[in-house]
Amino acid sequence: MANHGVIVGLDVGTSTVKVLVADVRDQQVNVIAVGRSISHGVKRGMVVDIDAAAQDIQAALSQVKEQTNQDFTEVIASIPANAIQMRMVRGTVTSQDSQHISYQDVIAATKSAINIPLEHDQAVLDLTGQDFTVDDLTGVLDPNDMVGSHLTLNATAYVGPRLLISNLRSAIERAGLNLRDLVLAPLAASQTIATDAEQEFGTILLDLGAGQTTATIVQNHQIKFISTYGAGGANITKDIGTVLSISNQDAEQLKLDAGVAAPQFANEAHLLTVNPVGKKPIRISELELSEIIGARMQQIVTKLGERLDTVSAFQLPGGMIVSGGSATLRHTQDILQAAYGINAKLFMPHEIGLQNPAFVGSWALVNYAAQQTKVALIVKQAMLGIPITVEPKTIVAPKSDQYIVRKTVEPNEEDDMRRFRQTGPESSSEKASKPTIVERLKLWFSELFN
């Protein structure tokens, strides 16, 4: 395996930045420190303010440094699944010494494989499912030091907006960190939170994040479908603040303390005190709060359900695994099971201090890294243009701007490509302002889905 020692996972999200430090021995992960800071430079999963994101990363990192009394300089970070396409790619090279395959040949094959035609604003974000062919021997997992003259890499490339990767890398570097790897968030989750049987027979992974909600289908141990809807927990918080005329901070706290995912599960007798801006405190019921939350939740569930239904996702035997910070809303599983007619279970790490679905992203990163083989890491670092250390010498990988090279795809190669496109983020912006709660709710619900 490529990993033995300390691994630092970095999850730069819309609402929070999380850092997990884990000690890895024989693929066993022991989390030793956790850092968390409020995120200011990210919108719908994408870094939009590099300086702000860098400061937030440093703030979270300082917490784990204090906990461990150690400095950390290298991280593995997650990439959101915005507008992702999947393509089968292949790269073939001739061995440099003509007798034995080396990691230099693996790097060259990687460069060849990602040399695919792309739009100017697109980039290869991740590369997985690698297997090699040495001369006529297929299904090779690690070709290093094998006797052979030709090496072919077969893999799945995940293509998406270049800004997803470039802005995040800039923020990480500006925070004074080196990048070990970038991993597509659904890819890390699919290989860590789903059991082997769920990965084999087919399961839906639903990540209820702050800025967006992502549905992923994994089957036969491969990602088959990704779709992201541009609304999440932050939108729910904004809805609460708009309807009740309270600050975003108060709305978030109200959601966490008393939020229910749907009105049918709310307690009308449970009264809550809120403080509208510029007005006296008022009392609302848990039912009224749940109507605000439930309207947005229903929108998210309906939109993603329509997309999942087009690929017969609800016929998969593995049901649904739910994660993300918004999954903490009470009765979230109930509304998903009722809407989709399948079993939905909540996943959260078992480690002390991490027993919250909001930590699944960073937890999945370090566990994914713990399972990663040496050759898989070399392929990824070659793709990203990161210097690769392989004893007894250091291999210099191509620079990051060298791996977006255009070439013409032959018809037979194009026929072999499997593409799955994700619909881009979308959301509505709604506002309501009426003197009373009831009038605000009526206007809110009438406008919400327009």
What does this structure look like?
The protein has 450 residues and is of the alpha+beta class. It has three domains: 5-82 and 164-195 and 359-371, 2-Layer Sandwich (Nucleotidyltransferase, domain 5), CATH 3.30.420; 85-158 and 376-415, no CATH class; 213-346 and 425-448, 2-Layer Sandwich (Nucleotidyltransferase, domain 5). It is 34% helix and 28% strand. The protein has a five-stranded mixed sheet, with helices on both faces. Strand 4 (42-43) and strand 5 form a beta hairpin. Helix 6 (233-244) packs antiparallel against helix 8 (286-310) and helix 8 packs parallel to helix 13. The longest helix has 25 residues, at 286-310. The protein is globular, with a radius of gyration of 23 Å. Residues 390-434 have low confidence and may be disordered. Keywords: Cell cycle, Cell division, Cell membrane, Membrane. Self-interacts. Interacts with FtsZ.
Task: Pick out its properties.
20 strands; 13 helices; alpha+beta; Nucleotidyltransferase, domain 5; 3 domains; 450 residues
What's the short version?
The protein has 13 helices and 20 strands. Helix 2 crosses helix 11 (374-384), helix 6 (233-244) crosses helix 7 (248-258) and helix 6 (233-244) packs antiparallel against helix 8 (286-310). Strand 17 (320-323), helix 9 and strand 18 (344-346) form a beta-alpha-beta unit.
Structural class: alpha+beta
Strand content: 25-35%
For the residues shown, what is the average pLDDT?
88
CATH class of the largest domain: Alpha Beta
Oligomer: single chain
The low-confidence parts are 390-434
Estimate percent helicity: 25-40%
Question: What is the CATH third-level topology name of the largest domain?
Answer: Nucleotidyltransferase, domain 5
What's the Cα radius of gyration? 23 Å
Total number of distinct structural domains: 3
How many individual helices? 13
Number of strands: 20
Distance between the termini: 52 Å
Overall outline: globular
Biggest sheet, strands in spatial order? 3-2-1-6-11
CATH architecture of the largest domain: 2-Layer Sandwich
Note the main sheet. 5 strands, mixed
**What is the CATH H-level superfamily of the largest domain?**
ATPase, nucleotide binding domain
